[in-house]
Fold this protein.
Amino acid sequence: MSAARPSAIVFAYHDVGVRCLRVLLDAGVDVPLVVTHTDSPGETIWFRSVATVAAERGLRCITPADPHDPELLQSTRALQPDFLFSFYYRQMLKRDWLDLPKRGAFNMHGSLLPRYRGRAPVNWAVLHGERETGATLHRMTEKPDNGAIVDQFAVPILSDDTSHEVFGKVTLAAEIVLARTLPAMLDGSAVERPQDLSQGRYFGGRRPEDGRIPPHASARQIHDLVRALAPPYPPAFASFGGQRIYIERTLRTDTLPDAPGRGLRLWHDGAALWLIADDGHALRVLAARRDGDSQPLDAHAFETLSSGSWLAADA
């Protein structure tokens, strides 16, 4: 008589959720329940659907507003799962869920823990000019992102990478981490190591208004902010001549342009659009648009904003 397959309840969302769910299924793990989110109508959905993968594989999939509903917890206990996995599920799971699986609850986090614990780890890493990040599989506790590490995998962040591009690398890192460590988890030989929490800190979620470009930021700081918030996220912005301008993509240069004016300003040289920082260094603007305008703002369109060649940022 063959042994029963190991089983796992899976809470998942986003691309990481899709790829990690597929890793479990590819390894022969029985997934009697998938818990995911209903897509928010106010959010740009650029990532793949966990619910679609579950439907394709004939898995039971639910989208509860409150995953801690007593009836849901009670019905799930009867499944007696070996594991619980959380792959980019957006709600914190409380003790009742963490104690439910026989062999533990585990989360995949999009950073090299203990660094960048908390929300939006990829965006924060890019914003701070980090040169690497990654994915970490760790045991879940009641405090977010502080349980023992099972495995992690690092990926590079290039100087012009956007958060969207880095997230693609982190998604692959998450798949690698789970695929290479899952056999040891299933046979009980996986070794966990505690986090040194002094080597990192928590970060909160970000709001669209947090994308305002500080008037005295350096060119490098502005470039990191722009690429951290580049589409599909709400982009970085500043106001010029009473109009909000979204800066969606920039390129750093090593030259100090002979541009008129002082402080943060937009300037065009007849061919390209430039964002000049308060430190005098320039960023070539590769993509920008005015608030409410779907058309790109380029050097030619800039002429409709100003009769001159430059505009200072509004105070």
User: Anything to note?
Assistant: The longest helix spans residues 163-187. The two ends are 76 Å apart (CA to CA).
